[in-house]
Amino acid sequence: MRVAGFNEPGGPEVLRVLDVPAPEPGPGEVRVRVRAAGVQPFDLAIREGWSPPGTPAGFPRVPGNEFAGVVDRAGAGVTTVRPGDEVLGYCRLNAYAEYVVVPADALTAKPPNMPWEVAGGFPAAVMTPHIALEEMAVGAGDTLLVHAAAGAVGTVAVQLACISGATVIGTASEPNHEYLRSLGAIPVAYGPGLEDRLRALAPNGVDATLDGAGGDALDISLNLTKDRDRITTLVDHDRAAALGIRTTPPEKRSASRVAEAAHLYAEGRLRIHVRATFPLGQAAEAHREVATGHGRGKVVLLL
Predict the structure, then answer these.
(1) Is residue 290 part of a domain?
(2) Number of domains the chain contains
(3) How many angstroms separate the CA atoms of 97 and 37, rounded?
(4) Is residue 163 domain-shared with residue 196, that is, in the same domain?
(5) Confidence (pTM)
(6) 282 and 244, same structural domain?
(7) Within 13 Å, how many C-alpha atoms sit on residue 135's CB side?
(8) How far apart are CA 238 and CA 208, in angstroms?
(9) Other CB atoms within 10 A of residue 160 CB
(10) Domain that holds residue 8
(11) Residues 98, 4: contact at Cβ < 8 Å?
(12) Which residues, in sequence order, are bridge partners of residue 186?
């Protein structure tokens, strides 16, 4: 099968289309013919040389931790899906490939009305904010501050919080303000004077913060949020413990979270914006696009 992988860490240019043996599912596992795979900052870190716990040694290494496709084969004991089912799934590596093997419980059904380009970038985009909002117990009556609110995770966080009954203030560049309003958030511009602008909207501070920007934005959040246990950073992980704030625990990932969000999508209550798609052979360009740190929504590889 074809994959987009690398034989040594480095810049986007190390990504190449490679031919490797197709994986076979073992007991409890499923092989999926991948139709689309999301591209995330996590994948860029893998390409640059980061090895998360449990990463197999050796090369080639294939990034990609979310995907959508069609079940191709099911291993012994699998009863929840069968060949031909259209599914959404997550993994840690290996989604930039024609086939990926995952445990059956990492899959959930793709809604029929969800396009493949949306489906490929759906699982991770919804799980991270779903976990964060649950951990911070965001709900009706709360005011939530979301930094980088126009990004892939930010836009889902805005929508999920609004569905729960919270008021959402979202920081973003001015060209994205109307977009945030359409999602239900109160937009605020980045830049000098940000804390004053936020205090004008929330004179008594905010109840919780989801930080997708880090740096100065996080520092301002420390001043505005009433309880540090209700601050989650998605980017400044190295500072989190010392500051007494949260990160999203990876062990909380689950197909049930994806299924819940997929149901909202199918009902028309959750929107996912895809800003760019690339074929597998242009994985390097997809990484460059994500590395800009700008733009709304997801970047997705199509196979």
Answers:
(1) yes
(2) 2
(3) 8
(4) yes
(5) 0.92
(6) no
(7) 24
(8) 20
(9) 24
(10) 2-121+273-302
(11) no
(12) 169
Beta strands in 40-151 (DSSP E): 66-74, 86-90, 99-103, 107-109, 143-147
Q: Report the C-alpha gap between 139 and 224 in whole angstroms.
A: 18
Quick check: 137 and 230 in contact, CB under 8 A?
yes
Q: State phi, psi for 136 to the nearest 5 degrees.
A: -90, 0
Q: Is residue 156 within 8 Å of residue 270, measured between CB atoms?
A: yes
- CA 84, CA 66: separation in Å to the nearest integer? 19
Would 106 be classed as within a structural domain? yes
Domain shared by 49 and 148, yes or no: no
Considering the domain boundaries, does residue 261 fall inside one?
no
Strand ranges, E, within the chain = 2-5, 16-19, 29-39, 66-74, 86-90, 99-103, 107-109, 143-147, 167-172, 186-189, 208-211, 231-233, 274-279, 298-302
Contacts (Cβ under 8 Å, ≥6 apart) of 236: 211, 214, 215, 218
**Which CATH number characterizes residue 141's domain?**
3.90.180.10
The verdict on 159 and 64 lying in the same domain is: no
Among left, alpha and beta (phi > 0; psi -120 to 50; other), residue 264 is alpha
Per-residue pLDDT 10s for the chain (303 aa) are 999 999 999 999 999 999 999 999 999 999 999 999 999 988 999 999 988 888 888 999 999 999 999 999 999 999 999 999 999 999 999 999 999 999 999 999 999 999 999 999 999 999 999 999 999 999 999 999 999 999 999 999 999 999 999 999 999 999 999 999 999 999 999 999 999 999 999 999 999 999 999 999 999 999 999 999 999 999 898 899 999 999 998 889 999 999 999 999 999 999 999 999 999 999 999 999 999 876 788 999 999
Q: Is residue 103 part of a domain?
A: yes
> In this structure, are 288 and 200 located in the same domain?
no
